[in-house]
């Protein structure tokens, strides 16, 4: 049986709390992205990977439909409050990543929450972002090995941040937050 899609106030408030925390982290990542791109551009994928965090934490903790997308949108609004000029980027990223995370979860009808599913989602997100960056950035400025590493880190970044998000979600679940966010 597919879980109910109606979300309680406590679930929405939990999404909001996760969104605020991860949105602040996304704003910080946005603040360091320009210096990282200038000083060590090959590491930009690791910084950009933080954008998977809202959905991973929300899905691991709450295990319900729509929580990834809702949490991503709240995080995008928080990050946009810090950097209003990037509201389009933050909302677009939230829709892309949150939508992909929801799509992967929907394929199992929101019944299976194994870690491999989260990592599969991270690899897909990383591949989509790496493809977009390949065309948007001047990747040819790097030697061939640098091009490979640059693109690979756009996949490794979301995977690494997914591991962090799973750990946070599990810790919150052990603390009993999921029990308080039913319905």
TrEMBL record:
Extent of the signal sequence? 1-27
Q: Which residues cross the membrane?
A: 66-87, 118-136, 148-172
**UniProt key word DNA damage:** no
Which InterPro entries did the record assign? ABC_thiamin-permease_prd
* Keyword terms of this UniProt record: Membrane, Signal, Transmembrane, Transmembrane helix
Q: What is this protein called?
A: Energy-coupling factor transport system substrate-specific component
Per the record's keyword annotation, is Cytoplasm included, yes or no?
no
């Amino acid at each position: 049986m597919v879980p109910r899609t109606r979300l309680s106030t406590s679930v929405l408030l939990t999404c909001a709390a996760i969104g605020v925390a991860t949105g602040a982290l996304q704003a910080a990542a946005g603040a360091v992205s320009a210096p990282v791109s200038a000083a060590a551009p090959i590491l930009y994928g690791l910084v950009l990977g933080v954008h998977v965090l809202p959905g991973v934490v929300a899905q691991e903790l709450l295990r319900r439909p729509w929580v990834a997308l809702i949490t991503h949108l709240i995080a995008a609004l928080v990050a946009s409050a810090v950097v209003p000029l990037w509201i389009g980027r933050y909302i677009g990223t939230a829709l892309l990543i949150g939508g992909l995370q929801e799509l992967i979860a929907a394929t199992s009808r929101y019944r299976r929450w194994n870690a491999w599913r989260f990592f599969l989602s991270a690899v897909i997100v990383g591949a989509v972002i790496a493809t977009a960056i390949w065309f948007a950035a001047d990747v040819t400025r790097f030697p061939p090995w640098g091009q490979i590493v640059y693109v690979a880190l756009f996949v490794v970044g979301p995977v690494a941040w997914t591991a962090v998000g799973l750990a946070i979600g599990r810790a919150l679940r052990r603390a009993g937050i999921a029990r308080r966010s039913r319905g």
